[in-house]
Amino acid sequence: GLALTLPPDILVSGQGRLAALIKDDKLLATSLRAGRFERDVWKRYTAAKSTQALGGTVGQCDDKGCVAKLKGYGIAMSLAADGVAEDCRCVDILLALHGQRVTKAMGCGADLTVIDAWMLRQKGAYAIWLDPTGPQIQTVRGVQGPRLWSGWRRP
């Protein structure tokens, strides 16, 4: 099994405004403008030595998002809903940071791990460990329990 005491490989903020990959003691964020507080917390939590914008040698970014490879997984951070179909075809994990729900009509396969606005609203921020057996996912809701504002109702 995976020791979840190690820092996660991917972090996604609860509002979906920011995501980051952790590689070689670096926090590689989708933005260096948005989510300053989250970036600072994440940097301390992961013991990253520096914070950089995602891109360059780790990923490729354009105005619709970023695509990166980490530990054998293809990861897309989609900033525009019209880029989802293209991202779905070439990755294992899709982080939809454009505020919309990702549906099957967008062309994503069932084996794709998707985190979208609806999931973030329900479960809060995400931490993902990239294990050879598959992504290991932890959410705020999974750790702290249901949040009143997430639409949870007692059974």
Question: Could you describe the 3D structure shown?
Answer:
With 155 residues, the chain is of the alpha/beta class. The protein is built from four helices and eleven strands; from the N terminus they run E-E-E-H-E-E-E-E-H-E-E-H-E-E-H.
The biggest beta sheet reads: 6 strands, mixed
Note the beta-strand portion: 25-35%
The sequence of SSEs as H and E is: EEEHEEEEHEEHEEH
Tally of individual helices: 4
Inertia-based shape: globular
Whole-number mean pLDDT = 83
Summed up:
By secondary structure, this protein is α/β, with parallel strands linked by helices. It has helices at 36-46, 84-88, 117-123, 140-144, and strands at residues 10-12, 19-23, 26-29, 50-53, 59-62, 65-70, 73-78, 93-96, 113-115, 126-131, 134-139.
Structural descriptors:
alpha/beta, 5-stranded mixed sheet, 11 strands, 33% strand, 155 residues
